[in-house]
Model the fold of this input.
Amino acid sequence: MAVILVRGAGDVGSGVAHALYTAGHIVVLHDSPAPSHTRRGMAFVNAFFEGKAELEGVLAKRAITLADMTKMADCHRAVPVVEAPFESVMAAVRPDVLVDARMRKHEKAESQRGLAPLTIGLGPNFEAGKNTDAAVETAWGKELGAVLWSGRTRDLEGEPQELAGHARDRYVYAPVGGIFNTQLNVGDIVSQGREIARIGEHCVYAPLSGCLRGISHDGVRVREGTKVVEIDPRGLAKAACGIGERPRLIAQGVLKAVRAHLS
Done:
């Protein structure tokens, strides 16, 4: 059993935290305050807003203080989610394993080696043996979930996965920065052209008809260009909930790396 800190509470980070927790490890999930992740039905994100969230039978609860976080992690009844400064969380947790699941596609990954006995980077811009000890491939393809102990993960490339013939046009990005206001939620059905949110005086419209697979939480502050809406044109509300195929395969890779390190 290891003490593991996962950075990033989106669908990938939550899938990883879920897999590590169910494997018996002590897991803490960290993110920035009021994160804008959209796939809230596939993640523990709502715990940051409503105090708790459940994902495939695993409960996550928001830890208000670092002392609460430590008690929750030790009792192992839920995954504590915490938004305190990262350095403070690191000092309180003192993890055996640090997993960076923030999925920062366009940002250079800083070196995290030495922050924990094992550091694992997920997604583009990680190089095993250089900025993390290990990396896990997150791009679609036959190598999805593969563990790298040397070398780089694939660079960001191509279009998102297609659903019913739609790829990037399924997403909406914030036209301006500001407070994201919406009355809709994950799983709601929308029609093309419907107003689904506002950012200040700017309206956000549905680019096509379907089910809201992802939508940022009402009241969060977003930056210009942030992904705030994702539509599933198949209209399947059930597909907006639970751990997705890609996060599940990535989580299996993380588990494999942790087991190799502990053996």
